[in-house]
Every structure is written in structure tokens, then in C-alpha cells.
Amino acid sequence: MEDRMSMVHVRDNTDRPLIVAEIGLWVGDNARHLMGLNLDRLFLIDPYKAYERHSQEEVDEAMGIALPKIASHPNAYKTSFIRMESVEAAKLFADGYFDYIYIDGDHTLAGASEDLEAWWPKVKAGGYFAGHDYSSSVGVMRAVDAFCEERGQAVRTWAPPRTGDGPMHLSDWLIEKAG
Ligand SMILES: C[S@@+](CC[C@H](N)C(=O)[O-])C[C@H]1O[C@@H](n2cnc3c(N)ncnc32)[C@H](O)[C@@H]1O
């Protein structure tokens, strides 16, 4: 899997140890990539509960693959796994705490919109708010577009909007929070 474009952008434009969160882990592939950043702390958040078309058995299996993958990385000691729903987990953190938040959990319009509202205050001024599946999920695209329009906020994307299979590392959206 190639590095996601928001992570490439963050890595290329920062030179300090970063406080990062990923919302939605599945088998931990992107988490492993994030663990390669210059990290202060990384929080990995997923309730691993049945969702959309995935049964509890499937999500249990995904967690069973993700956790050893995370634990075996040299930066595991900088990483915390939080088994909670995104919006509940957001309440654990002070506003302005994170340098980079990556949203990749619930991809429905309602779920993605709730995540954007819950996590936006948690990004520090000058930090990065990003996520996956802008180009590949109508729900995410609509949620991000509405969120940005309400705030007059510019969003960066890397691929023309469309749905279905495509170069998934290009499917990120990214907002730089004004410093
Ligand atoms: C598309 S997968 C994440 C893939 C992962 N980010 C990657 O790129 O390697 C979506 C994940 O979101 C999780 N999820 C679903 N609803 C969630 C919620 N409300 N809060 C946090 N995570 C959620 C699912 O359990 C699943 O593991």
C-alpha cells in the first residue's frame, strides 16, 4: 500500500514530533504507515463493532490482524489503541491537542459529518485535518464539502471526485487549520 497523500503532505511540511489520531483502523494497514511518522503520540481509535455490511465476526477478525501489526512496530510504545466509537473518543481530548487527525471510520453522510464536527476542534491551529475516501465514497465527499462550505474552509484533494475502485492513496482530503 502506498502512503496516503495527506500523510505525505504532513510529513513533508512538518519538522516536529507530531500528536496524531487515526479514526477507523480495520486491519491496521494505514496505522502502520502513520507509525513511521516523526511521532510524539499516536492514538488509534476503533470500536470494532459490526457496522455497515460487516458482521461482528468480521470486525473481530480485522482487530485480530491489526493489533499484532501495531504492537510489532518500533513506535508501538508511542501508540495507544482506544476501543471506542469516534464521537465518544473525541471527548477524551482537549481542544487543539492534535497536529494531524485522519478520519476513516463511518463513511455514511451522517456518520462522517458527526466525525468532522467532533474532531475539528481537537486540531491545533496550524495543524492538519484529513481523511480517506473523498474520491471513493459519496457520503464522505458530501460531508466534507458541506463542512467546508459552512466554514468557508478550503479543502485539498488529489483525485477527481468519483466512486468505486481507484488509486486509494489519492483518495484523501486535507484541511489546514489556520494558524
Ligand atoms: C475503511 S476501514 C479503516 C481502514 C484504515 N483506516 C486503513 O486505511 O488501513 C473503517 C474502520 O472504521 C471503523 N469504524 C466504523 N464506525 C466507526 C466509528 N463510529 N468510530 C470509529 N471507527 C469506526 C470500522 O470498525 C473499520 O475498522
Structure notes:
The protein is an alpha/beta fold and 179 residues long. It has one domain (5-176): Rossmann fold (3-Layer(aba) Sandwich). 34% of the residues lie in helices and 21% in strands. The chain contains 6 helices and 7 strands; from the N terminus they run αβαβαβαβαβαββ. It has helices spanning 5-13, 29-34, 56-71, 86-90, 109-119, 138-151, and strands at residues 18-23, 39-45, 79-82, 98-103, 123-131, 156-157, 173-176. Strands 3-2-1-4-5-7-6 form a 7-stranded mixed sheet, sandwiched between helices. α5 (109-119) packs across α6. The model has no long low-confidence stretch (mean pLDDT 96). The structure holds S-adenosylmethionine (SAM). S-adenosylmethionine binds at residues 23-26, 29-30, 45-48, 51, 59, 62, 85-86, 104-106, 132.
Structural class: alpha/beta
Helices and strands, in order, run as: HEHEHEHEHEHEE
Instruction: Assign the CATH class.
Output: Alpha Beta
Strand content: 15-25%
Q: C-alpha Rg, in Å?
A: 15 Å
What's the architecture in CATH terms?
3-Layer(aba) Sandwich
**Could you tell me the mean pLDDT?**
96
Largest sheet: 7 strands, mixed
List bound small molecules. Answer: S-adenosylmethionine
The count of β-strands is 7
CATH topology: Rossmann fold
Principal-axes geometry comes out as globular
Determine the CATH superfamily: Vaccinia Virus protein VP39
Number of domains: 1
Q: State the share of residues found in helices, binned by percent.
A: 25-40%
